[in-house]
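Take a protein:
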Amino acid sequence: MKYIEPHAHMVSRTTDDYQKLALAGCEAICEPAFWAGFDRSSPKGFYDYYRQLTEYEPARAAKFGIPHFCWLCINPKEAEDPVFAREVMSLIPEFIDKPTVLGIGEIGLNKNTRNELAIFEEHVQIALDRDLPILIHTPHLEDKLKGTRLMLDSLANFSSLNRDKVIIDHVEEHTVDLVLDQGYWAGMTLYPESKCTPNRAIDILETHEGSKLWLNSACDWGVSDPLAVVKCGFEMKKRQHSPEAIEKILFENPKRFLSQCPNFKI
């Protein structure tokens, strides 16, 4: 089954996972910058992380014939200290022109604080200054609706923002309409213990037009499945979705969004 994994944290996965993705039909992997499973103690840790995203992971993926792309930022979980966050953000210009970098992400909110929102807005401005796509993380569980509204209100203040170049990820039933109705793309993350299960995601697909939706696994250091996207494709098949509809959501939609960055070539 041909598909794109548009949001996966492969730095946390084994080489066996790359092999499984290749065997399942994965045509490209996109890896947003995020939390390392622990809070990093200095900007130097992020410098090495950006090297890992732009140098090591593309080489590891290439061994299995999969193009690897990435996004850069300081993630919202580590953005509460603005001084520290801005030191990390000062590293981004050194890496942003690397040939596999897609844009800024995954930025967003974690606990919906003022400091997080300020750093979120500074990231948005970096993307606007360079005309780059943006990938946005929405908070977990009870903070999701509030955080989504806060970020949508914030984005509305950027008059030059092209909403077609922004994807707001981890949407669920109570946030998907907020995102789509304002003209943004929406990502559904397939997790076994939170976010969307495959059947919930397919329910959302069946009740929405779907032209600006994608599926991702966001596989990371916790309980997660790097094959969640292709497994959801098989669930769609069991629910009588056509091959064309499955290919649209698994491949064509993410390709259409990601191709807005000239670096994305598959």
Strands lie at 3-5, 26-31, 68-72, 101-108, 134-137, 166-168, 185-189, 213-216. The chain has a mean pLDDT of 96. Residues 124 and 134 are 7 Å apart (CA to CA). Residues 43-62 form the longest helix (20 residues).
